Amino acid sequence: MPATLSLGAHVDSADPVTAARERDATLSQFFLGNPQGYKGPEFEYSGGAEALKADAEAAGIDLYVHAPYLINVATTNNRIRIPSRKLLQQFIDAGAAIGAKGLIVHGGHVDSADDVDTGFDNWRKAVEATDLKIPLLLENTAGGDNAMARTLERIARVWDAIGAASGSDNVGFCLDTCHAHAGGIALATAVERLRAITGRIDLVHCNDSRDEFDSGADRHTNLGEGLIDPDELAGAVRAAGAPVVIETRGGLDGQRADLGWLRARV
Prior knowledge:
Helix content: 40-55%
CATH class: Alpha Beta
CATH topology: TIM Barrel
Mean pLDDT: 96
Strand content: 5-15%
């Protein structure tokens, strides 16, 4: 583990540099546009992408972009998969324009009637079809029987499929602690088991969970206030040794408190 972890939060995209400073953080994660829509990236920052890149570099703030939730490159539905691939490339390009360290994207899913193997192969095709100018970070998800990245077994299969694609060396992994807990992956051994599959953890989303283990419910809460054992939560962050983003409630005050909770333990 590095002597000092890089910590930050998911913030508004209008000014992620100031948001990091307000949280005494060294990174910011944000959406570039509506996370629930198919519209392409939008730069709210004054001066646009070029100014954001320059100002973040000058301030020593690392930037991470979270892709829209609607992206699902695994699906067999052409009306979703094709726009998803297009959006994926657009957000990779936008992330590159601001010097982002990575684009985080969920694993997606197939419909209940579909063969999950098709979803894994669609991931391979998507990676081959995308110019990965910055790292693409696949995030584990909390629920869904047909999800690509909920269980360790599914993560292993999608990782094998991605590994067969040209460009796969620029695909990394984002561990979400709430999603792991809700998805049935024990945090006490999650980092070790995921590294055995992926060989890497590039980013951690450190979130507590409002729900029971293996509930399938994606409901974050503030650190120490949920149902994840605090020692296991801190231990997973410590073991991963990767940059950390908190995605918790309470705005500036809530996130400052959570970052303080984390600093005290790791």
